Structure formats: C-alpha cells, structure tokens
Amino acid sequence: MKLQHLIGAMALLATFGPAHAAGPAFYAGVAAGSDYDARYVGPVDTQNSAKAWLGWQFADDWSLEAAYHDLGEASMPPIADFGFETSTEGWSLAVRYVAPLEWPLKPFARLGWFAFDVDGSTLTIAGPRRFSTNDHGLLVEVGAQYAIGEHFV
Q: E strands, 8-104, where?
C-alpha cells in the first residue's frame, strides 16, 4: 500500500534572484511546513517538512526548476495491533511560467515531473514489518509570488 502524506502547507521563507530579469538568471529558494497532528484511529504525529529548489530563468516569464522535497516523517503509536512509521522524500523537475503582470503579487504555474520514496515500518501484533516504495508522476502546481524588492521575490 502506498502511503504519502503532505505534512503541511509549504511556507515561503526566501527566494533569491532578480524580480525583473532582463536575461537569463539563476535563483534559489527554500520552503518549510509545520508539523500536523491529527486523530484518525489514533494520534498521527508528523514532523516538519522542507523543500529547496534551484531555478534558471531562461526567458522573461519562463524558468526551469529542480527541487528536493523532504516531506518529513509520520508515525502513529501502536493501538492494539496496528501502528506505523514513515519517512518520505522526493525530487522534481518542472517548467515554471509567471504571469507578466506589473503587480508585486504575480500568479505562477509549474508543470513537470515528481518522484518520491517512502520508507517505513508497519507495527503489527507479529512485530514490525519494514516496507519501501517509490513512485513518480505528473507535477502540476499553481500559486503566487510576492516581490518584496528588486532582488527578493
């Protein structure tokens, strides 16, 4: 069984690069998500998630981005004969388009490829059972960026 949890909303911490580049430009960024605790059958405890990316703006509105995604860890302590622990990480490669608006807040879209690995164990009455799985697929993302200044987006 595939288990993938998006642990929290990714919050933009910093992106460095030109807000209005005249030609090709490189940029980098990081994002973080806080842990999320939920109750289903029992308490599910999650750890913080993070993302780091590098991009190359090859045209005014277009760029190519590669990213590493640490989707954190999730666990549920044993209740009767069930519990689990997982750790998930992923990688992505995407083309990004930013709408050419003259506002500080600009919508963007990404289209590309995403792959992830999940490692963990299921806790059963017979003892822990290790598992590992991976998958890949289409990445589609929409969002908005805010230009704080000329060199920070």
A: 11-16, 25-33, 38-39, 43-46, 49-57, 62-79, 82-98
